[in-house]
Design brief:
- The complex is a heterodimer.
- Chain A is mainly beta.
- In chain A, the strands form 2 sheets. In chain A, strands 2, 4, 5, 6, 9, 10 and 11 form a 7-stranded mixed β-sheet that branches.
- In chain B, strands 2, 4, 5, 6, 9, 10 and 11 form a 7-stranded mixed β-sheet that branches. A 4-stranded antiparallel β-sheet of chain B has the order 1-3-8-7, with no helix packed on it.
- Chain B is mostly beta strands.
- Chain B has no helices and 11 strands.
- At the A-B interface, strand 4, strand 5, strand 9 and strand 10 of A face strand 5 and strand 10 of B.
Chain lengths: 112, 121
């Protein structure tokens, strides 16, 4: 099974500052179609998870453009250009190249 | 409005059974693959199972394979999860989530509010 490792696990950020979350996969997530099969989800406090990014760099509908995703080999990054108070919560990466799908441990973003 | 509403969560004894339902509305249910994802108390997300739009193909996490069965009733826009031989480690909030595709399970853009399953004597 593919293991997803996120870092950091806790991320205090000042509003207006950028933030970056890393996710590393134990195997390649690159499909023969050229896409990396990685999603990013955010779970705000007391809420259900919501999709932010799919195929490593595609923003889901309605997601602000301050969120972006990138890939380099088996390393994936979620970047927030300017953190807002509403961005607090747990961020999860999930690989979708192989069943069973697997999530990272989650990164807790909090406001300083 | 696209909505998913889970139900069926309960307190059940170890070794018992439970059936979860997820009622879908606001989209063509029969066109999309559907997932179950769970979250144990204070823990992260765990993908549990997926079924493609036709219901002919299903996938499971190793932790539930042989004990859980996912199915769907496209005529009633309902996703089901039959859970047998329940263990304490199955205690979690169970979410249903809609894929963006008919025959692959990722890109889960719509989630329900979840239903709570507690396995305890």
């Amino acid at each position: 099974d593919i293991v997803m490792t996120q870092s950091p696990l806790s991320l205090p950020v000042t509003p207006g500052e950028p933030a970056s979350i890393s996710c590393r996969s134990s195997q390649s997530l690159l499909h023969s179609n050229g896409y990396n099969y990685l999603d990013w989800y955010l779970q705000k406090p007391g809420r259900s998870p919501q999709l932010l990014i799919y195929l490593s760099s595609n923003r889901a509908s309605g997601v602000p453009d301050r969120f972006s995703g990138s890939a380099s080999g088996t390393d994936f990054t979620l970047q927030i250009s300017r953190v807002e108070a509403e961005d607090v919560g747990f961020y999860y990466c999930m690989q979708a190249i192989q069943i069973p799908y697997s999530f990272g441990q989650g990164t807790k973003l909090e406001i300083k | 409005e696209v909505q998913l509403l889970e139900s069926g969560g309960d307190l059940v004894q170890p070794g018992g059974s439970l059936r979860l339902s997820c009622a879908a509305s606001g989209f063509t249910f029969s066109s999309y693959a559907m997932n179950w994802v769970r979250q144990a108390p204070g823990k992260g997300l765990e993908w549990v199972s997926c079924i493609i739009n036709s219901g002919t193909t299903t996938y499971y996490a190793d932790s539930v394979k042989g004990r859980f069965t996912i199915s769907r009733d496209n005529s009633h826009n309902t996703l089901l999860l039959q859970m047998n031989s329940l263990r304490a480690e199955d205690t979690a909030v169970y979410y249903c989530a809609k894929s963006a595709y008919h025959n692959t399970c990722y890109n889960m853009g719509v989630w329900g509010k979840g239903t709570t399953v507690t396995v305890s004597s």
